[in-house]
Design brief:
By secondary structure, the chain is α/β, with parallel strands linked by helices. The protein is 44% helix and 15% strand. Strands 3-2-1-4-5-6-7 form a seven-stranded parallel sheet, with helices on both faces.
């Protein structure tokens, strides 16, 4: 039997890269999936790529908007009747270094990567309680563990905070049967990383014992595990998917 059969999932940032791989994996495992992207165009294009009969519902939402978390969860509940799984995958990246970083850029990164994640989790947890529990999976980054190499301090700090918030919510939501876990990927081969300078890619590969970038399916497979009942005694954990680039 499919591991997520009968489950209802909401995946943010589900139009490309890791997010799209998670949406596809969840559909294969039997879940109904609502997924978000920032624009109507992006979610329409992503939905068109999926099978026509897939139980997939695209929702346009800019997570910098403070009302977006409540609207996203409400849209998922309205379409499918509830929510069992939330994957907080959407995020924004900054390359501004410590001398260039402005308060506006700091707020932009943390608004999407941290604030929206908390309020999405809280809104989803309200629905999960009525269904007897659920699973929340947060996508952090290796930058939140070792401080980052090419990214901004704003990005690294937001992703480190995601790890801490995962542990906090895991403690608070456990009484409601809701598990909260985190995945911290390193560099994954997506359309975004494909455009990185070759010098940077070589440097990052040289720092990775397995000597390559990861694949989106290597993250989506772990997400299926954490979303499913196979991980029913796992909560508050951070799973590093990084080819050995960071070992804690």
């Amino acid at each position: 039997m499919a591991r997520l059969s009968g489950k209802i999932a909401l995946v943010t940032g589900g139009t490309r890269g890791i997010g799209r791989a998670i949406v596809e994996a969840f559909l294969r495992e039997g879940a109904a999936v609502a997924f978000s992207g920032r624009t109507d165009e992006s979610v329409a294009a992503a939905r068109a790529w999926l099978p026509k009969d897939a139980a997939a519902h695209p929702i346009a939402a800019d997570l910098a908007d403070r009302e977006a978390p409540e609207r996203l969860v409400a849209a998922c509940v309205e379409r499918f009747g509830g929510i069992d799984i939330l994957v907080n995958n959407a995020g924004v990246v900054s390359r501004a270094n410590e001398w260039e970083l402005t308060p506006e850029e700091w707020d932009r990164i943390h608004d999407v990567n941290l604030r929206a994640l908390f309020f999405l989790s809280r809104e989803a947890a309200r629905s999960m309680q009525s269904r007897g529990g659920g699973s929340i999976v947060n996508i952090s980054s290796i930058a939140g563990q070792h401080g980052g190499i090419a990214g901004s301090p704003a990005y690294a700090s937001s992703k480190a905070a995601v790890i801490g918030l995962t542990r906090s919510l895991a403690r608070r939501f456990a009484q409601h049967g809701i598990r909260v876990n985190c995945i911290a990927p390193a560099d994954i081969d997506t359309d975004m990383t494909a455009n990185w300078p070759q010098e940077l890619r070589r440097r990052l590969i040289d720092l990775t014992p397995l000597a390559r970038f990861g694949r989106p399916d290597e993250v989506s497979g772990a997400t299926v595990f954490l979303a499913s009942d196979e991980s029913s005694f796992v909560t508050g954990q951070t799973l590093s998917i990084n080819g050995g680039a960071y070992m804690s």
